Amino acid sequence: MTTLRPRDFIECDGLLAAVTSIAHPEGPVVTPRYAREGHALRKLDTAAARDWVSTRHPEWLVDSPLLGVEIVLVPTGAIECVHRPETRAAALRAGDALHPIELAARRVLDALVAQGVPSARIGVTGSLLVGAMQAASDIDVVTYGRSTFALARAALDALVASGEWSALGPAHWRDAWQRRGAPGELDTYIRHEERKGTKAIASGVRVDLSLLQDEEEGIAEAPPYRKLGRHVLEARVRDASGAFDYPARYLLAHAEVDALVSYTATYAGQASAGDLVRASGWLEQDAAGARRLLIGTSREAEGESLTVLVRGA
User: Fold this and answer.
1) How would you class 302 by CB atoms within 10 Å of its CB: exposed for 0-12, middle for 13-18, buried for 19 or more?
2) 210 near 265, Cβ under 8 Å?
3) Which of 150, 167, 236, 305 could make a disulfide contact with 253, Cβ separation 3.0–4.6 Å?
4) In terms of DSSP bridges, do strands 305-310 and 291-295 run parallel, antiparallel, or are they unpaired?
5) Domains defined for the chain, CATH in brackets
6) 118 burial type by CB count under 10 A (0-12 exposed, 13-18 middle, 19+ buried)
7) pLDDT value at position 222?
8) What is the pLDDT of residue 301?
């Protein structure tokens, strides 16, 4: 079996799940996203995903004393298929696309490559990766490596500036806010998202860029942290070089907490160096006593947030 990476999807016994960690030797830690029901795929939220696993494969539900949460860990031997974002992107560009979202994705990928983004360093994930796209689906583009991500953001900006693509309008932002289930007011969500430069409209479809950093750039995998409890803090961000990484990471100027970490895309790129932020999440501590605040323990990240109070200079 090919080496797994975060943002790959695995398929096992009718469950399609996004890989979130590959650190466990028994198999990947995953987030279930879809269940096969006949010829259709049913999208799973966090509660439905747990119900599916607890009914069909309760042995995959593992209490992690280290992390202080229940995780879904699929044994390597149970994996029937691996869906790779870059393989799907190459197939879309080279083969016949039948669905309107597939056609739009081909045009998006071709446009990024024409702008100088290496074709071998981009992929598509989410519903498009596993063939679950619908008329209202987005095009989630994965870029491999920080330099590729920088090129893709610059390409997106150039395509919007040229008029080939367009910026999101109020209706697009509201739809994105509602689908993500992001906390807070819509205006606050838009203020943060517009700053990131990762979203646009192409062929009437929303495009969203994300980064999976290369191994040498430091993919953080299941660090030895234990949960101490819920916590809220305010602090200055002293280093945001890992803001778009997976997981997103912000180093803080704070007396007790060293960093903010988020596994949910809502808070990737949320803050820049010098920003004063308020964060709510789970306080964690490693064996050496270093503390971090984890934001985004589920896709919905209920009760967890990161807000820029004052932008840095």
Assistant:
1) exposed
2) yes
3) 236
4) unpaired
5) 9-83 (no CATH), 85-212 (3.30.460), 222-310 (2.40.50.140)
6) middle
7) 47
8) 59
Three-state SS string across 95-156, please? Answer: CCCCCHHHHHHHHHHHHHHHCCCCHHHEEEECHHHHCCCCCCCCEEEEEECHHHHHHHHHHH
Task: Tell me: cis bond preceding 247? Omega within 30 of 0 counts.
Answer: yes
Q: Say how far apart CA 269 and CA 198 lie, in whole Å.
A: 9
Q: Considering only CA atoms, which of 113, 117, 199, 209 is closest in space to residue 160?
A: 199
Residue 70 tokens, joined? 């229940």
Bin 178: left if φ > 0, else alpha if -120 < ψ < 50, else beta: alpha
> ∠ at Cα 228 (225, 233), nearest 5°?
100
The CA distance from 160 to 154, in Å, is 10
Q: Which residue has the tokens 């739809």?
A: 175
313, 274 in Cβ contact below 8 A? Answer: yes
What tens digit of pLDDT does each residue of 278-305 get?
999 999 998 889 999 998 765 555 678 8
When pLDDT is cut at 50, 70 and 90, the band that residue 217 belongs to is confident
Which has the closest alpha carbon to 123: 149, 100, 90, 97? 90
* Token pair listed for 250: 């912000």
Residue 313 confidence class, pLDDT cut points 50, 70, 90: low
CB 280 within 8 A of CB 305: yes
